[in-house]
Design a protein that fits this description.
Four copies of one chain form a homotetramer.
Chain A lengths: L2 H4 L2 H4 L16 H30 L8 H25 L4 H11 L8 H10 L20 H12 L3 H10 L5 E2 L2 E2 H22 L5 H22 L1 H10 L6 H12 L4 H35 L10 H11 L4 H4 L16 H6 L14
Antiparallel strand pairs in A: 1-2
Amino acid sequence: MYYHDYLDLDRLLAAQNPLSDVEGRTHDEMLFIIVHQAYELWFKQIIFELDAAMRTFDRQPIKEREMGALVAHFDRIVAIQRVMLEQLEVIETLTPLDFLDFRGVLGTASGFQSVQFRLVENKMGLPRSRRPSTGDAPYTAWLNDEHRRAVEAAEQAKSLADHVESWLERTPFLEMGEYDFWVEYQAAVDVMIAKERQTVESEPGLDTDERDRHLARVDANRDAFEAIFNDERYEAAREEGDRLLSRRAFQAALLINLYRDEPILQLPFRLLTGLVNVDEGFTAWRQRHVLMVTRMIGHRTGTGGTTGAEYLEATARRSRVFTDLVEIPTFLIPRSELPPLPDAVVEAMRFRLEGPAADSVR
Amino acid sequence: MYYHDYLDLDRLLAAQNPLSDVEGRTHDEMLFIIVHQAYELWFKQIIFELDAAMRTFDRQPIKEREMGALVAHFDRIVAIQRVMLEQLEVIETLTPLDFLDFRGVLGTASGFQSVQFRLVENKMGLPRSRRPSTGDAPYTAWLNDEHRRAVEAAEQAKSLADHVESWLERTPFLEMGEYDFWVEYQAAVDVMIAKERQTVESEPGLDTDERDRHLARVDANRDAFEAIFNDERYEAAREEGDRLLSRRAFQAALLINLYRDEPILQLPFRLLTGLVNVDEGFTAWRQRHVLMVTRMIGHRTGTGGTTGAEYLEATARRSRVFTDLVEIPTFLIPRSELPPLPDAVVEAMRFRLEGPAADSVR
Amino acid sequence: MYYHDYLDLDRLLAAQNPLSDVEGRTHDEMLFIIVHQAYELWFKQIIFELDAAMRTFDRQPIKEREMGALVAHFDRIVAIQRVMLEQLEVIETLTPLDFLDFRGVLGTASGFQSVQFRLVENKMGLPRSRRPSTGDAPYTAWLNDEHRRAVEAAEQAKSLADHVESWLERTPFLEMGEYDFWVEYQAAVDVMIAKERQTVESEPGLDTDERDRHLARVDANRDAFEAIFNDERYEAAREEGDRLLSRRAFQAALLINLYRDEPILQLPFRLLTGLVNVDEGFTAWRQRHVLMVTRMIGHRTGTGGTTGAEYLEATARRSRVFTDLVEIPTFLIPRSELPPLPDAVVEAMRFRLEGPAADSVR
Amino acid sequence: MYYHDYLDLDRLLAAQNPLSDVEGRTHDEMLFIIVHQAYELWFKQIIFELDAAMRTFDRQPIKEREMGALVAHFDRIVAIQRVMLEQLEVIETLTPLDFLDFRGVLGTASGFQSVQFRLVENKMGLPRSRRPSTGDAPYTAWLNDEHRRAVEAAEQAKSLADHVESWLERTPFLEMGEYDFWVEYQAAVDVMIAKERQTVESEPGLDTDERDRHLARVDANRDAFEAIFNDERYEAAREEGDRLLSRRAFQAALLINLYRDEPILQLPFRLLTGLVNVDEGFTAWRQRHVLMVTRMIGHRTGTGGTTGAEYLEATARRSRVFTDLVEIPTFLIPRSELPPLPDAVVEAMRFRLEGPAADSVR
């Protein structure tokens, strides 16, 4: 086996064909092509990881021994996202004036037409409602037929977000014998809020205005919890597209975060963290991408009234998938207020080898 | 000289005093302190570089032999900003649940109270109008008297942006003998736009709708240029705070970008690029900072109606200083359309050693 | 609570006192001080994490629910090491000529005198035999009495490497009922080597020379395994300082790597990976540090005959602690050759909730 | 123009063909292919930049207005090297055990066979004498005929190092009228060394031993300079391959570093810095690459007696090109000792616009 053949380099290295004259002024088109091709290679790898993760989720129930490999898919995507970020700094070595030298040959070609990136978004589970408006035309309008069909098929198929939701819903720990997580959690929140209120009320030296202001903050805090306590408000938020996860899945995610140290929850916690990392990684990349695009082409306004940079900025703000998980911290309660799990639940979360008395193996 | 004494480590390493119990659960407060102290060290260095740069600008005219060192200040700040970005990933090893364990001891202390970061903003030249609203209170309301005075003094003093504007205005190349850059530039833009219009009009196979759409885009493009051609529109934009640089300074920046290869413009071009890099670097850091804060504390709404994360997000979008320079690409014209400089101007931009015939030294 | 006071910034920001005149040419001494202070802050944090990890190891047996937090210490150190690497690029903005302007004031002060870095090394478990020679004087010769005593005390105390060794030795899975990992592993290696030999011998079209060369490679491979199969060779390597871990601990590390997917081994595998990451991270930093130093001061030879850069280079090559773990890949065998664990062992490694038939919870 | 076609994605994305079954265990081969392909894309871009830089050097004399673009080639390579470093962390998400699952299919294919990387080395100007021994076979022995010829042709052709040497030798400032840089420089060094000696001799309270030790250090320092003062020693070092640059080129590099602030030397200084950056960047990448390889395959010894990791480590230590430039700091003298340039030389280094009295334009 010869390295060059194994990597099919004859094919790979024949795919860079600048349209402008490669001598002199248009030197930089090669960089433009290569950096975009490098991105497409990484998009292919990300899709490969997402597909593999979804195949694992599909083999439900997921075996505990598969959890390590499942988490590894997302850790790898995070490592790739760091490369993606760094590549933006390579593009920024292309100055706006040099870009103008060959910008004309690109015509209407645009990164907006990257099928693979659209597939990444849809496989992650980005709902159409979180895509910024592209005017009258759907976001797929700039793709050719074959690509449009592929992107739409991915939009219809079960996404990573769907799989994660199903997996969370199957968590056996929300109710276990007499234990009901949601009841316990709500009670703990009530106690916590009551304490906060009492602290304000017993605080000496506050004038009425200050007291009212502090109490208003306690109320606002209480109200934030109401958004997940109240069935109708929760479902309304889902209708609005503000929440994607079912309430049961959300509760499971909260439980995993709160009791993450229990042996059986350690890998699930890492999985949820991995999903947040990946979601944040794409957002970070989108944000830096806007900065790069702004720097490269400025803000020349199109006839549509918005500029490319503005559209991308909206994308960076809105096109997130795992916002329910990102928002979990809003609903955490300090360990000091956290209701302890009943012994039976603790036992169920442990390894066989761990004795009931001695709390450990090694 | 002993390393430990030279660095005053007895003092430096006595400054980490977690308020929560350092054992067990509150282990992470030490990280919280140290990472913020590391930021403050870097802010001090950035202020030191900004001050040094401003002292150089103040010794006007700036000697050409000082230009290298001037550019170096901004390259160094960019290197520091990379460290600042990387430090966010260290904070993200602190999980929201662990943060809750000691969040209470922080009380109302907040990064919003970092005097040095406020000084960085004001020394850079951030106008008050570009700070997102902090309600009825000024942005300095959360500082103590001494710090507030220091921050306000920096706001009043001549800023880096002011210095850059003065330096640009002194550029001798805008008019030189019979040469008038602005006249030449406007003419070249007119030719370019006329060509674009003609290309659309002579394009075969366009129906009326398409033609109108394309022509509208040409008009929009023309209109963008009008914003800098037209005196009143330019000044109106300055009044609005949309532009900070005087028109003459803006023209000089445009000239430097367009003719950056002329020997005497090479370092000025690097200086302008350095300023854009620094501005972008702070923006990139603010954006990632928002992601980190969101991840750490979620979106719990304060009584003011906005959350910390939302305020920071507005900051990341709006709190830029060198937007005039960032926007330069909007107004570049391709080299093929660029009017050549008259011989006399080219000569004036060269080294003494360069002969008029042979275009080079080595 | 006021941010400035919480972080003790009056103290922290009073600790930068350049000895050269801060105006003009010696501008860069401030950077030199601040970047070294930033390193010392991070060293303090690393020591804090190492100490916390060792306290956990000390509470043997380690509870399974502590494993997540234990792994997190090393993940955090890895994040800090990325900052440390990035900081080298900040130092590199200081040019050699500018460094010369204040190098004199440093006298004999040297990073070699960083007590905290010496403590990091000793707490990690760096044996004295892996420190490059510093001539007749011990490596502590450049420290003052108080610091020397602290560094020597850390060298005598139980190190992270010692704790890891004890923890690995307590692994209950090396022998469990009739199962003996080492017997199974050796048998599998023998089968693998025999197959390799047979492949060579049955390969058609090899001439005698080629066959001999291939067989010599199989023998060399076999011999590599002998280094861990043979008691005396293993102990000789320990005597030589080539190996630090006891044989039993090494076997446990190998077991964890080979069967890392079993639920109870997933966190231990992450722990071992974290240790390798940290060890590699320090080595990567040492290597880049050599490049930076070389670039700053060249290779001016001291009277001792070696240059600072050469000493540091030796350090980068030799001063590693977890080389036994880094070397594990040498002894891995492909999953296809891996003997399956007996059912009883598999059961012992699972969660209580996992049924013997259904292999999973969710 | 359609993005997908412009980037030839049908071709590019058809080039990933794992040999092992893509399901299950051998999942990771895709990553292995893609990361190596990404490297090859970047090698192509680096070659493209090196070739363009060499074409500029070839158009001697280089016009001053080309210097900015020339420097930019190396700044871009540095940005690419950062991506290359980051990609190593992506490979490290592939665990040794997973690598074993498909390592067999690679057979003898090896990164050692990367033609493009060999071309990069030869175009940079890596002399064969700085390649670590590959036993009896030349380093090209593992390439096919076509590739071997290409690599050998690049070895014969004028390299970047050759071009840089010619360019440095053409510097007009080494002798200019009555000014002779080398005479002035040597005199300044003599004064500096004499001062050092006198400082030691007049230091009160040194005993004889200490004085001798200090004086020996002064002598060693003096001797280091002798290596460049003495014609025969310099040429002997060139014969040995310890130096690559001609003496005249080396002197020019020293001059540029010492008087880098003079207007006409600012871009040349940046060019030399860029070359050092690129050289250091490859070394940093080679070093991290060794760490990654060690971690992936351990130290299994081949029949040749050396392991892949050891060979790569030797490469990282020895395979540098611009060592003469890296070593410049050894020979810098502090600005306080630096002989001022004669007025005529200073004038020759300035811009036409700068008056002889007023030292500046702006």
